[in-house]
Amino acid sequence: MSIMTPEGLAGLIFLFLAAVTLAGALIAASTVRLPRAVAGLALSFTGLAGIFYFLNSPFVALMEMLIYVGAVCVAIVFAIMMADPGVEKGASSRATAIPAGFSAALGALFAAGLIVLARNTMWPPPAARLNDGSVIQVGHGLITTYSMVFELISIVLLMAIIGALVLARKGRDPE
Amino acid sequence: MNAHPEILRLLAFLAGLIIFAALNAAYLVWLERKVCGHIQRRIGPKEVGPFGLLQPLADGIKLMTKQVLVPPQVDPVLFRLAPALVLIPAIMSFVVIPFSANLVAREINIGLLLVFAFASVNVLGLLLGGWGSANKYAVISAARCVSQNVAYEIPMLITVITMVMITGTMNLNEIVLQQPDISQWYVFRFTASPLMPVAFLVFFICSLAETNRAPFDLGEAESELIAGFHTEYSGMGFGLFFMGEYANIVIGASLATVLFLGGWQSPVSFIPGGWWWFLAKVYFLIFTIMWIRWTYPRTTLWGLLNLSWKVLIPISLLNLLVTGGMLKLMPLIFGAG
Fold this sequence. Notes:
The structure holds 2 protein chains of 2 kinds. Chain A is built from 6 helices and no strands. By secondary structure, chain A is mainly alpha-helical. Chain A folds into 2 domains: 1-85, Up-down Bundle (Four Helix Bundle (Hemerythrin (Met), subunit A)), CATH 1.20.120; 132-175. In chain A, helix 1 packs antiparallel against helix 2. Chain A starts with 5 loop residues before the first helix and ends in a 6-residue tail after the last helix. By secondary structure, chain B is an all-alpha fold. Chain B has one domain (71-332). Chain B has helices spanning 5-39, 55-65, 76-94, 111-132, 136-167, 172-177, 196-210, 222-225, 235-260, 275-293, 301-334. Chain B is globular and about 70 Å long. The N and C termini of chain B lie far apart (53 Å). The A-B interface holds A 33, 35-36, 38-39, 42, 58-59, 62-63, 65-66, 69-71, 73-75, 77-78, 81, 85-86, 132-136 and B 73, 75, 77-78, 81, 108-110, 113-114, 116-121, 123-124, 127-128, 131-132, 134, 139, 142-143, 146-147, 149-150, 164, 168-171.
């Protein structure tokens, strides 16, 4: 198929976004510098947001940017701010080789499972565009179709808040 | 090969927005120096060109001819990337700002969300810049920027949620269309909530803090932190941070204008609205921001965080409750409208 057809261009854009997502994830997983790992994670999330936009869901794409890039990455940076800004030279290659190999094997297994699942699933195209992403549509969705998920998420957040309170209650260790 | 008109339009808007952001950065620095000068009973820049109007050009040439030094101990990739991460999201946010009824690069249903999604990337740029510099002043400044931005994002977003409850849309142009004259501006819309002017004030204070403007410029407190997160930057690296800061100020003032002050609509119905009204309101707000900067001393970090967590967040939550109540009560009192 030629690149200059609409389908060709769309495929090219999809491949680019997927490459950005994967590259970000690889940077995040493989670098020893914590700030670079966060930057890689942010890149991966941005690529994912691009894929959501590509799949015609701008609302989810922007939420991905707002929550994952703007909040999660910033919170992670806030946590690693306690670390030394220089390059970490702590662990030797032998100490990290076994866990790295183990996680690579697990990752490969997981990826293989997902690929098998994706190839064996029938993907029915949606009958019509679900909604236009306007406030009214999203609001209706949240309190009707997806109300169960919505409430479950609020329980997760409640548990996170209580956990933070329990941790903070002890106060700081007077060293 | 003939290009599609929509693609041409988008390219024209992209070029226009980048030029707009760059011109704003250049001439807001000139304006800042003039305002600062007159407030301090000086006259500000006057040597280069009439009224010093060519001063930004001279400054720009100076910045561009300087070498961008990369100190040996920094992370070179992040160090070079950070200024772009501050500037690009700001330019992206301009895409949905309606300058007039038709002068908007891309009108989407969730424009308000887009602005906040990209504004939240800005702080990541500051952080990576400060952190990547491997300089203790830059790191302290980056830590302050995060705590400040996290703290002020909350009351700002609560206020914006209140506005979305009232307007019922996140399309910025529709929000403007709901405010045809000064009595309908959301800042004076007491039928929606008696606390509307307070909501405007909360939003304005938060946008000052989000853009790290005085009296909340703890991130670059010169007397303590040299120049904050951009201590190690020279030449256009510093220049891009500066452009990003001014672009963010323009975005903040534009959002305040769109949400509360009627956007491009004229305040009185017999004068037609248009982009000139939008720019007049935006630049008035920017002038106010400068006026505040040169009038009030810098707060302390504790004062800053206390203001957000103990004053602004409770007020914005109260406003959210009052607005929700009013939205349910008004149709009961005046009949379904």
